[in-house]
Amino acid sequence: MEQGNYSVGLDIGTTKIVAIIGRENDYGKIEILGTGRSKSLGVHRGVVNNITQTISSIQQAVEQAELNSGLKIGSVVVGIAGQHIRSLQHSDYITRPNSEEVIDDDDLEKLCNQVYKLVMLPGEEIIHVLPQEYKVDGQSEIKEPKGMYGGRLEANFHVVVGQVSSIKNIGRCIKSAGLDLGNITLEPLASAEAVLSQEEKEAGVALIDIGGGTTDLAIFKDGIIRHTSVIPFGGNVITEDIKEGCSIIEKQAELLKMKFGSAWPGENKDNEIVSIPGLRGREPKEITLKNLSKIIHARVVEIVEQVYVEIKNYGHEEQKKKLIAGIVLTGGGSQLKHLKQLVEYITGMDTRIGYPNEHLAGDSDEEIASPLYATAVGLLMNALETNNRQQIVEEEAVLEEEKVLVGQEHSGSTSHKERKSIFDKWSEKLKDFLDNAE
């Protein structure tokens, strides 16, 4: 079945693995062609800890998506999270040999590549180098230096660092599941792509993605990513608390949380009771909803407070760094009743729940527009974007070759064929790295 150019996002989460196949329609919106979802076994707090189980979970999700769409999945864009992710600020500069020429992509690339050479702690590797703002010859606050004259080009970078072994393990799982690794993206960045509007990123916004194993945070201001962090708690610890606190099995605890759970204990009357069937031959258990929401409340407050510490670390309390658009909650954990009110109460910031429907075509499945799928949709967007970029580079390369064949004067000093985006180079480095590792 011919579907034109389609791409695939694969979200390897702690509770579920989602594969989404999609393509861009004529209006620049994303059309979902197929989805697959499986229970994630072998991932703990966002990090793969059982390769065999993870591979079979990935295969399950991928097969379902293939059946669903009638398409074959080749290369995927994967998200990375986990408590080993940290981010740092770094500034760097290059001196240009000829300040009579305008600054072009090659200069920006050279500057970015320099940052990749930063010496990291042993066992760490740079995942993203995100330029924040540039300075040309000391003139600061430049967002787009391309086309300007200048001898010294410097920039502040937001550098995201992760553990080499975790990245290798993800690559290994993808490879063993019979897929190609197209790209690796930080999960909070992917979720932000899917649920935030450009206005919010300009005004200043904190995206909190509450997953099963981790809670991811991404802060934007003036349209630029300013801070990222991954907190190693999520919806699963809430379930764990209910399980311990009510002495019931995990499956029942998860159902209780989803059906009756609330983050605000004042809501429930003392006499509201749920009866849970006992294990084989035992008496049923009776649990008051008030107790249930007290257990949930205690843990959610802890998670939100940790996130709020990160928001303060970024400097939200300074006038210039104020996040005017407040907080956007997304991920499966954001569906907990009264969570929005609790977050507003703790942080004093405006809060909304983020649905990834901003970029989806109008006739998309209701289910995909749920906060559960924010990361997967974001990864798919990243895959489509990478795909488009590669096509442009390839087309330019063909044009260049034709030019040379016709024997015209070859004006450009570098052929576009050699120019790859930094990300492609990084992907290649990673691929070599994974091939050598085996």
Task: Record keyword descriptors for this entry.
single chain; 438 residues; alpha+beta; Nucleotidyltransferase, domain 5; 5-stranded mixed sheet; 18 strands; 38% helix; 27% strand
Could you explain how this protein is built, in words?
Its main location: membrane. Pfam families: FtsA, SHS2_FTSA. The structure is a single chain. The chain has helices at residues 51-69, 105-116, 164-176, 187-195, 198-203, 235-246, 250-260, 289-314, 339-347, 374-406, 422-437, and strands spanning 7-12, 16-24, 30-39, 43-44, 47-48, 75-80, 86-95, 124-136, 139-142, 152-163, 180-186, 205-210, 215-221, 224-231, 273-276, 285-288, 327-330, 351-353. The strands form five sheets. A five-stranded mixed sheet has the order 3-2-1-6-11. The protein has eleven helices and 18 strands. Residues 412-419 have low confidence and may be disordered. With 438 residues, the protein is α+β, with helices and mostly antiparallel strands. Helix 6 (235-246) runs antiparallel to helix 8. 38% of the residues lie in helices and 27% in strands.
In short:
The protein is of the alpha+beta class. Helix content is 38%, strand content 27%. A hairpin with a 2-residue loop joins strand 4 (43-44) and strand 5.
Task: Write the SSE topology.
Layout lengths: L6 E6 L3 E9 L5 E10 L3 E2 L2 E2 L2 H19 L5 E6 L5 E10 L9 H12 L7 E13 L2 E4 L9 E12 H13 L3 E7 H9 L2 H6 L1 E6 L4 E7 L2 E8 L3 H12 L3 H11 L12 E4 L8 E4 H26 L12 E4 L8 H9 L3 E3 L20 H33 L15 H16 L1
Parallel strand pairs: 1-6, 6-11, 12-17, 17-18
Antiparallel strand pairs: 1-2, 2-3, 4-5, 7-10, 8-9, 8-10, 12-13, 13-14, 15-16
Helix pairs in contact: 1-3, 4-10, 6-7, 6-8, 8-9
